[in-house]
Design a protein that fits this description.
Number of helices: 10
Strand order of the largest sheet: 5-4-3-8-7-6
Order of helices and strands: HHHEEHHEEEHHHEEEHH
Largest sheet: 6 strands, antiparallel
Radius of gyration: 21 Å
């Protein structure tokens, strides 16, 4: 009996260490920049000694990396290797692929599928149009507001606290860019405008931009939901731009939203899939 009781605290301590490690990794992922031990400890309500101990272990495993000159910690190289393997095994890429192929064959345009990544959009699957001139869509690319309709869809259907954190992070990043590069002033976000745009996207279930990257391609994106009626991904059409076309925004909108609804239903969504279908 004594042996069994002696083992219980060890098991509990081990499980708690895993929880703390997960919290640290999530914080570093969501912050989008290196974090100092003092700030991490304050945010998580832990002692600096405890945070330092866990970060040291994670650093030894390559899951986090310490910045030079005591500049804090960031995610480590081991996570990037694991993330590539995770993308290959991610359920939605397998479920969505056949629907994406059918849509590509129907509209003859390039497609991408992106998942939420701390409020931004991470591309997990792409299908080329097969045309001689087609966009270079790369899996693993991180898309952000304000230039990406895909990122706007992800942000619009993310929890409110995630949206506010992303806005704070992006505004702070852009202000830093202004101090270093005054020519970057035009990229500063207006949080009120972003919130208004997110509300509009929530109502119409898509986002569109005529030529977000000035590369000759228009982009339209729609949300995909899971069985918990939560945002699972964004499905995006990157189409050859037709200058002056008044129908460019709705050119493939019906087909895109129908495919997004079908993928959502395959993932178990009922309420959000039906709501999106009713907006076609």
């Amino acid at each position: 009996m004594n042996d069994i009781n002696d083992k219980k605290p060890v098991k509990s301590s081990t499980v708690q260490s895993v929880v703390v490690a997960s919290q640290l990794l999530e914080l570093l992922a969501e912050s989008g920049r290196p974090q100092r031990v003092t700030d991490i400890a304050a945010f998580l309500g832990m002692t600096k000694a405890r945070v330092s101990r866990h970060l040291s272990t994670l650093s030894d495993l390559g899951l986090v990396a310490r910045m030079p000159d005591n500049g804090g910690y960031r995610l480590g190289p081991a996570l990037f290797r694991l993330s590539n393997a995770a993308l290959d095994q991610y359920e939605i890429t397998n479920i969505a692929y056949r629907y994406m192929v059918m849509l590509r064959n129907q509209i003859k345009e390039s497609l991408l599928l992106a998942i939420p990544a701390a409020g931004d959009a991470l591309v997990v699957s792409t299908i080329s149009s097969g045309k001689a001139l087609s966009p270079n869509l790369v899996r693993g690319t991180r898309l952000v507001i304000p230039t990406s309709p895909t990122a706007y869809v992800i942000l619009a259907f993310s929890p409110e606290h995630v949206r506010e954190r992303v806005l704070a992070r992006r505004c702070e990043h852009n202000l830093a860019s202004v101090r270093e590069l005054p020519s970057e002033r035009e990229i500063i976000l207006d949080p009120a405008e972003v919130r208004t745009e997110c509300t509009l996207i929530q109502r119409k279930f898509y986002a569109y931009h005529d030529d977000p990257h000035e590369a000759g391609y228009s982009v339209v994106s729609a949300p995909v939901f899971d069985h918990g009626e939560r945002l699972e991904a964004a499905l995006t059409v990157v189409m050859n731009r037709r200058s002056g076309s008044v129908n460019q925004e709705i050119r493939y909108l019906r087909q895109l939203k129908q495919t997004a609804v079908e993928i959502s239903r395959a993932l178990g969504s009922v309420e959000m899939a039906n709501t999106m279908a009713s907006t076609n």
